[in-house]
Amino acid sequence: MFSRLSQVSRHLSRPSLNYAATTPPSPLSRALLPKMTSSAVENSRKTIHTAACLIIGDEVLGGKTIDTNSAFFAKFCFALGIQLKRVEVIADDESEIIEAVRRMSNTYDFVVTSGGIGPTHDDITYESIAKAFGLKLQLHQPAFERMKKLSKPHPMQPKFDWDTPSPGLTAKLRMVELPYDEHTPEDLQAVFVAEDMWVPIAVVNGNVHILPGVPRLFERLLENLKPSLLPRLTNPEGKGIYRYLFSTPLPESAVAPYLTDLASRVSGQGIKVGSYPRWGRKRNTVTLVGRDQEAMDALVAEVEQNVQGKKVAREDELDPPLDEGEE
């Protein structure tokens, strides 16, 4: 699947690609990074209990783009019963990416990155993640063939030719040069999850999944990845975590003593108790979150009584009409 660059691409000028970034980390940087404890193959087979999301992009940190991918990923994990333990937003900076991705891969079962895999000079995610694990970038031939087949010509590039070296072709090739591990089966390193999309999900160290930052692509690729994740879940049927909402007219300070006692009593059952004020509203929200639906059902009447509230489907379900002038 992976191949050396074609004759065309070998002769292209690649000033924007920093191949030095694909060499193994220096002894100093390696010493500062977490020690990897599992092989890529082992990581690809582990039961998925925990997840982390790494959002990469100067445009997010600069306020130019609003990140919606982490919120989508959080709902995705919740629905599958995966505990999302960490979300980070970092710059398009090689050292930041290397440190974060190695740490997350070593700590969590399922890691997703978003952003930084486009055709421009500042899209350095593939290069940086390759360097993090001592890998090199290599042309992924199936992705390149799919790109040629499925990409529509840009109206501003009417004379573009896939067989003629050009700056445009150089830029496109950046998007199909993926981290390559010669010690890991190729089918574990890049997967296509939709027949009508050329974009692959590159997988590094068995548990780092590299996705684009464009929300519609991120969401579609992730949804189509779901069938391959189900067999690795604690519940292979993909049943997620349950969240019960209770609407209460009481302030947080009034329900705090009861909720503290309840949380202590049910922690052994894997049930978490939460309390959330709703500023400017006359009712607040109490939550129960857990996997044991029967145990949570048994608590409903008790919680309703002690918070003087009611279990609801939406936290605004029992809100009274707004007074004139309120927003």
UniProtKB/TrEMBL annotation:
One Pfam family here: MoCF_biosynth
GO MF terms held by the record: FAD diphosphatase activity
Organism, scientific name: Aspergillus nanangensis
Signal sequence region: none
Name listed for the protein in its UniProt record: MoaB/Mog domain-containing protein
Domain MoaB/Mog: 52-232
SUPFAM superfamilies: Molybdenum cofactor biosynthesis proteins
Domain of life where this protein originates: Eukaryota
An individual GO BP term: flavin-containing compound metabolic process
Lineage, highest ranks first: Eukaryota, Fungi, Dikarya, Ascomycota, Pezizomycotina
